[in-house]
Design brief:
Helix content is about 65%, strand content about 0%. It contains 16 helices and no strands. The chain has helices spanning about 1-20, 25-50, 60-65, 80-100, 105-125, 145-160, 165-185, 200-210, 225-230, 235-245, 255-275, 285-310, 320-325, 325-335, 340-350, 355-380. The two termini are about 25 Å apart.
Length: about 375
């Protein structure tokens, strides 16, 4: 254990030296985090209301993009969760360098990682309402819990492995998981059942064994359990690779942007090639899904980084930073506060004058969210996990 700690500290001290010339805060990271959170707390509803005005109404392309796919495939909303995990990965190299700079030991850093994972799991239980009644009507697994577990496992890998080893871990994880999806079916289904079907996938069977409880996919599957948390470690590690690129003192801003974009294009191309064998599937977090959304996340972050931190065009992103610096607070606010009802009371009459009243209501909801985020930002009140 002493040897591991010494090696880890030496590696992290090297990272601190590389970071000396970097900006103290990556403003594009706050902005892209806010952009991602807005889709959860109101922007998705606004787009769906706009889609209802288009030809096809609720079946229009835009409305369909605001819904998660049933099983195989990819819609815009299927990007939201992995992007958030990717963003959590980006911030980790910066966080570690700060901790080492102030003299934190490896043991203390590891303990902080575990505490953060435990806190996110606890917040996920609260968010799901699992403490509202007894016995528990739902499982302890949650979206926040999955982020905590995936991020923590990726963070441990990052601390003890160099860049090449991390890339090797991602490749090995995807390869092993691909084999499981293709050749391992649930032992509870008849022989010949598609191992990548909802009922036949082995991951669903393993999830029911490890985290029993109410499952939201026909009672046999839920995408937030421990097995899926282990699979999504690859997405968090990809984010950490992006963080290393931006944090490096060897390249200037335009070169970093090009590297990020290059990674994005390469991952997207590989993912689309893999999808011809293993379909893109968010609920299974299939290897092709990991690669495709990883590539899209790299490309999107490259755009935010170039616009805000390289070109210096920051004013347009200020509302996004309001939300991004308090993402967890905004997430919980929408679970606990009746934003939609408040919006109805404020603009309900005006909404009735429009052909699509829900558009006015959802815009009111989104405006209230931005105003709350702005208030917290201006008061310098930030809720961190």
């Amino acid at each position: 254990m002493i040897q591991i700690e010494v090696i880890s500290m030496m590696r992290m001290k090297t990272m601190v030296c590389e970071q000396q010339n970097a900006r103290p805060r990556l403003e594009s990271l706050d902005a892209i985090r806010g952009f991602d959170m807005l889709w959860i707390v109101g922007l998705g509803g606004v787009c769906c209301s706009i889609g209802a005005l288009l030809p096809g109404g609720a079946d229009s392309w835009l409305c369909q993009q605001m819904q998660h796919v049933e099983w195989n495939g990819l819609h815009l909303m299927d990007m939201v969760y992995p992007l958030f995990l990717f963003i959590a990965g980006i911030s980790f190299p910066f966080s570690i360098s700060k901790q080492i700079a102030r003299g934190d030991s490896a043991g203390r850093i590891h303990l902080r990682i575990l505490k953060r994972a435990a806190l996110l799991m606890a917040l996920g239980i609260i968010y799901n309402g699992s403490l509202a009644s007894a016995p528990w009507p739902t499982r302890w697994a949650s979206v926040l819990g999955r982020i905590g577990l995936s991020w923590a496992m990726a963070a441990i890998v990052y601390l003890h492995c160099g860049l090449r080893t991390r890339i090797g871990v991602i490749a090995m994880l995807l390869a092993v998981y691909a084999a499981v999806l293709l050749w391992c079916a649930s032992p509870l289904v008849p022989s010949g059942t598609d191992p990548m079907s909802l009922e036949g996938c082995f991951m669903g069977y393993l999830d029911r064994f490890l985290t029993p409880g109410t499952l939201n996919e026909k009672g046999v599957f839920a995408p937030s359990g421990v097995p899926m948390s282990a699979v999504s470690v690859g997405t968090a590690l990809l984010g950490m690779c992006a963080g290393d690129v931006v944090r490096s003192a060897r390249w200037d801003g335009p070169r970093k942007t090009a590297v990020l974009l290059g990674f994005g294009v390469a991952l997207l191309a590989i993912g689309l090639a893999v999808s011809t064998v293993i379909p893109i599937n968010k609920k299974l977090w299939s290897p092709s899904y990991t690669l495709v959304v990883g590539g899209m996340s790299f490309a999107l972050f490259a755009a935010f980084y170039w616009l805000i931190d390289v070109r210096g065009w920051r004013s347009w992103a200020l509302p996004l930073r309001w939300v991004g610096t308090n993402a967890i607070a905004m997430y919980f606010a929408h679970a606990l506060l009746p934003f939609d009802e408040i919006a109805r009371r404020l603009v309900g009459f005006a909404a009735g004058l429009f052909p699509e009243p829900s558009l006015v209501i959802t815009l009111g909801d989104l405006t209230l969210t931005l105003l709350m985020a702005r208030f917290l930002y201006r008061q310098k009140v930030f809720f961190k996990v």
